[in-house]
Amino acid sequence: MADTLWGKGLALDAVIHRFTVGNDPVVDLSLAPHDALGSAAHARMLAHVGLLPADDAKALVSALKALHDEARAGQFHIRPEQEDGHTALEAALVERVGEPGKRIHLARSRNDQVQLAMRLFLREEVLALGARTVELAGTFLDFAQTHASVALPGYTHLRRAMPSTFGLWGMAFAEGLLEELEALRGVWARLDRCPLGAAAGFGVPLPIDREYTAKLLGFSRVQRSPIDVQNGRGRHEQAVLGWACSVAGTLEKWLWDVQLYSMDEFGFLALPDAYTTGSSIMPQKKNPDVVELARGRCRELRGIAHQVEAVAGGLPSSYHRDFQLLKSPTLAGLTSMKDLLDVLARLVPALQVKAEAAARASDDSLYAAHHAYALVAKGLPFRDAYRQVGRELADGTFHPDRGALTATHLGGAGNLGLPQAREELAAARAWLDDTHRAVASATARVWAL
């Protein structure tokens, strides 16, 4: 096992080795650019405190930048016998710069090394998810504005309830995503602490400067407790996946509505032909497979989040090899979520509203509560008005004045609150842009020689 970081020249059963390595040589390819960046910051810190010659640090940073770029381009490889990306990265450094490559692991463990790579990866993913969520929220706002006054029956218990509009319907999902964008800042704050320096969970007996590394990488603070760094394995992955599941919960309701409203029996919406698939036996079919699969992705994502929670839970404190099993589902879940957001950002503006069908379904019965309110305006107590309308509905004499009342309060059908929502969306976009620039600036500082 000479190719492993922990190898001592002793033989290891091949089956055991394959089992313990798992799929890390594949999964770690996604973390390799972040591992290279974290390693470069670590090398600069070692030089900063005098534990590494300045020339060695420069050689390491230069080689790590090349490896980072190769990893981004898909040109970095991890051999099965190397176990993981950390081993492959160190081997590549030794091959390219010689003796300095053997010094890179001073004052760190694979434990805090992978934690840092994962934290940097999650930061990048959060910004990418946020940008996609902003784009999708914007498409819902555009939909709501375009169809602000187009009638749509409002349903409770899947039964017609009160008059609504496509604008009110579309605005609901924009509003939900705006709330999620606010929550994303809290997720970011949880990630905004540097774990490097915790080593195997108990620090190192060397004069390292954890604050220097944190600042260099653009973290606002250090994750102080080295034991908590290890206890946090899975916690931050759950936080990001939990946020994604919450977003998916909002989108799943929209997907269900689209599935219902685009049925022939409703006919309120239609998907363009290019967004449908056919049947192998029924020539007339235009199936909304994209809607159904997107809806399934929402439920699949909850399953992935539960998997991460199950693996991370039920363990004592400090490091355990179980944590290795967190990487694969986390990466899969975040990839799936990005795909979902990308697809829906195309689907929302492509929906075709069938205003006439929705108007036909908006019959007088929807205006029962409105009519009761109109009677209240004439002095009748609400409970008496409620009963009178009930009698009129029962005996067939119910003929409401549909234009008598309109909800003009903020958020009502007559006042969707679009300007306020667009301001909130602009603020979310600005925060994401500012945060992205700050991270990019920190990354440039790490690579600057």
From TrEMBL:
Determine the domain of life of the protein's source: Bacteria
Q: What is its EC number?
A: 4.3.2.1
UniProt entry tagged with the keyword Cytoplasm: yes
This chain's protein is named Argininosuccinate lyase
Cross-referenced SUPFAM superfamilies: L-aspartase-like
Q: Which InterPro entries match?
A: Argininosuccinate_lyase (IPR009049), Fumarase/histidase_N (IPR024083), Fumarate_lyase_CS (IPR020557), Fumarate_lyase_fam (IPR000362), Fumarate_lyase_N (IPR022761), L-Aspartase-like (IPR008948)
Q: Where in the cell is it found?
A: Cytoplasm
Cited HAMAP family: Arg_succ_lyase
Q: Name one Pfam family in it.
A: Lyase_1
Which family, according to the similarity comment?
Belongs to the lyase 1 family. Argininosuccinate lyase subfamily.
Catalysed reaction(s) here are: 2-(N(omega)-L-arginino)succinate = fumarate + L-arginine
**NCBIfam families (alphabetical):** argH
- Please give the Gene Ontology molecular function terms for this protein: argininosuccinate lyase activity
Q: Which gene encodes it?
A: argH
Pathway(s) this gene product operates in, as recorded in its UniProt entry = Amino-acid biosynthesis; L-arginine biosynthesis; L-arginine from L-ornithine and carbamoyl phosphate: step 3/3
Q: Where is the Fumarate lyase N-terminal domain?
A: 34-303
UniProt keywords (A-Z) are: Amino-acid biosynthesis, Arginine biosynthesis, Cytoplasm, Lyase
